[in-house]
Design a protein that fits this description.
By secondary structure, the chain is an alpha/beta fold. The protein has 2 domains: about 210 residues, 3-Layer(aba) Sandwich (Rossmann fold), CATH 3.40.50.1820; about 120 residues, no CATH class. The strands form 2 sheets. The protein has an 8-stranded mixed sheet, sandwiched between helices. Strands 7-8 form a two-stranded antiparallel ribbon.
Length: about 350
C-alpha cells in the first residue's frame, strides 16, 4: 500500500547512492536551490510531510530521503557496522546530492539522529552543504584542538544499574533491542503510539531542565524512555505513555509508521546507535579537531523536549563553539521531541525565515 502524500509531493527511487537504492520524497523545481531534510529515529522521510510542499512553494527543491536502514531505502549491509558510522551517513547525503544533479545544498536540515549527520556534513564539506538547521539533538561541535587524551570516566553505567536504570542508547546497541521492538507485546501500532506520545509535548510529565553533568545521579532524572528501568525493554518501558492522545498524529499517519516498521523492523536504525556507543569510530572526528560549521547554522527544538538536555552541556556548547555563523536557538512553546510534526506551521515558518536569510 502506497503512503498518501500531500499535494505536490512525489516519491521516487534514486539508484547507486553510496551503495544504496534510496527512496526520497520530493517537491519543487530541480533547478531551484536544494534543501535536504534528514529524519531521525524512529522516523522516515514521511516525518517531513508538513514542510516539503510549503518550502518548495517558496522557491526551493525539497528532498527528504529514507536514510540508511530505514523505510524503502535498501542496499545496506547490516553485518558491516562501519556503514552506519556518522561520517558514512554524511557520505550518503553527499552521494544523494550528486545523484540528484546538484553541486551544492542551500541548507541541510536534520532532526534527532539526523541532526549530527547534518552537522557533520556541513562541518566536513562546507563547499557542498552551505548552511544547516539542527533540530532536537544539540551538536556540541568537533573535538578541541590541540588534541588531548580523553579524561577517565567513572563507570556511570554500573552506577546507573545500582539505581535500577540503564541508558537507552546502550540498550539500543544490544542484541535484545531489535527483537523487543520488532515484535512488541502490545503490537507495533500501540508501541509506536506510546513511544511518540511519551516524547511529545502532550505528555504532562515532560517538564525538562538542564542536567548538571554526565553522572548516574543526574542521568537518572531523565524519563524512562531515555534512562530506562533496568529490567525492561523499550516496548515495556513506554507502556505508561500509552494513555492519552497525540492530536498532531492522526490514526492514518500513525499507520504509515506502523506499517513501515512492521515490514522492516528497527534493526537498521538501531545500528546507528551501536556505531556510536561502540567507540570504534570516534577517531573519525579527530580529523576535524578545532573546526566549526562555517556556514549559517541554527537550532530548533520544542521547549518540552528532554532530548535537548540528554547530553549535559551540549546545548550550551553548540551555541558557543559549534558554528562560526550561529543564527540562534529557538525553543518552540508546547512542542516536545517531534517538533516538526507537533508544531508544523511554526517550524515551517522558522525554516522559511532562516532560508530567506541565506545568500542566494
Amino acid at each position: 500500500m502506497q503512503t498518501p502524500l500531500p499535494p505536490g509531493v512525489t516519491r521516487r527511487m534514486i539508484p547507486d547512492v553510496n551503495g544504496l537504492q534510496m527512496h526520497i520524497l520530493e517537491a519543487g523545481d530541480p533547478g531551484d536551490p536544494l534543501v535536504l531534510l534528514l529524519h531521525g529515529f524512529p522516523e522516515l522521510a514521511y516525518s517531513w510531510r508538513n514542510q516539503i510542499a510549503p518550502l518548495a512553494a517558496a522557491g526551493f527543491h525539497l528532498v527528504a530521503p529514507d536514510q540508511r536502514g530505514y523505510g524503502r531505502t535498501t542496499g545496506e549491509d547490516r553485518s558491516r557496522l562501519e556503514q552506519f558510522r556518522i561520517l558514512n551517513l554524511a557520505r550518503d547525503a553527499m552521494g544523494l546530492v550528486s545523484a540528484l544533479g546538484h553541486s551544492e545544498v542551500a541548507c541541510v536540515v536534520g532532526h534527532d539522529f539526523g541532526s549530527p549527520v547534518a552537522a557533520w556534513a556541513a562541518l566536513a564539506r562546507p563547499d557542498i552543504f552551505r548552511a544547516c538547521v539542527l533540530m532536537s539533538a544539540p551538536f556540541p561541535g568537533a573535538p578541541a584542538w590541540p588534541l588531548r587524551p580523553a579524561p577517565a570516566v567513572p563507570d556511570w553505567q554500573a552506577a546507573l544499574a545500582r539505581l535500577g536504570r540503564k541508558h537507552y542508547q546502550w540498550y539500543y546497541s544490544t542484541d535484545a533491542a531489535a527483537p523487543d521492538m520488532d515484535a512488541p507485546a502490545q503490537g507495533m501500532r500501540a508501541f509506536l503510539r506510546a513511544y511518540y506520545h511519551g516524547k511529545s509535548g502532550d505528555w504532562a510529565g515532560n517538564e525538562p531542565f538542564a542536567l548538571k553533568g554526565w553522572t548516574a545521579e543526574e542521568l537518572a532524572k531523565l524519563p524512562d524512555y531515555y534512562v530506562m528501568p533496568l529490567d525492561k525493554g523499550m516496548a515495556e518501558a513506554v507502556l505508561p505513555y500509552a494513555a492519552g492522545e497525540a492530536p498532531w498524529l492522526t490514526d492514518a499517519q500513525l499507520d504509515v509508521y506502523a506499517r513501515n516498521f512492521g515490514r522492516t523492523g528497527f534493526g537498521g536504525g538501531l545500528l546507528w546507535y551501536r556505531a556510536i556507543t561502540s567507540g570504534r569510530f570516534q577517531a573519525d572526528f579527530e580529523l576535524f579537531a578545532g573546526r566549526r560549521i562555517e556556514g549559517p547554522a541554527c537550532f530548533i527544538a520544542g521547549d518540552r523536549d528532554w532530548g535537548i538536555h540528554q547530553n549535559p552541556g551540549a546545548l550550551e556548547a553548540m551555541g558557543q563553539r559549534a558554528g562560526a555563523d550561529w543564527r540562534g536557538t529557538t525553543l518552540v512553546p508546547g512542542a516536545g521531541h517531534w517538533v516538526q510534526q507537533e508544531k508544523p506551521d511554526e517550524v515551517t515558518r522558522l525554516l522559511l525565515d532562516f532560508l530567506r536569510g541565506l545568500p542566494r
